[in-house]
Design goal:
The protein has one domain. The chain has 71 residues and is mostly helical. Helices cover 58% and strands 0% of the residues. The model has no long low-confidence stretch (mean pLDDT 93).
């Protein structure tokens, strides 16, 4: 279920995965906040504060492999 949740943050434009992780966990750096503002995702700030970085990276890897197989 985590990959299906995460994919919505990458649908419109390419994003750096760690910026999305920072957004979801509430890392309030200027870079993360500005990227969230540009992508109209500020409302997702601190949406998943307990999101483990390893779980997140595994979900990104799964999504990347799924896309690679479909091309």
């Amino acid at each position: 279920m985590l990959p299906e949740f995460i994919i919505q943050f990458f649908e419109d434009q390419p994003r750096r995965p760690l910026a999305v992780h920072g957004l979801l966990t509430g890392k309030k750096t200027i870079s993360n906040l500005f990227a969230a503002l540009l992508h109209q995702q500020l409302d997702a700030l601190l949406l998943y504060p307990t999101l483990d970085r390893d779980q997140f990276q595994a979900a990104i890897k799964q999504l990347t492999q799924k896309v690679a197989r479909s091309h």
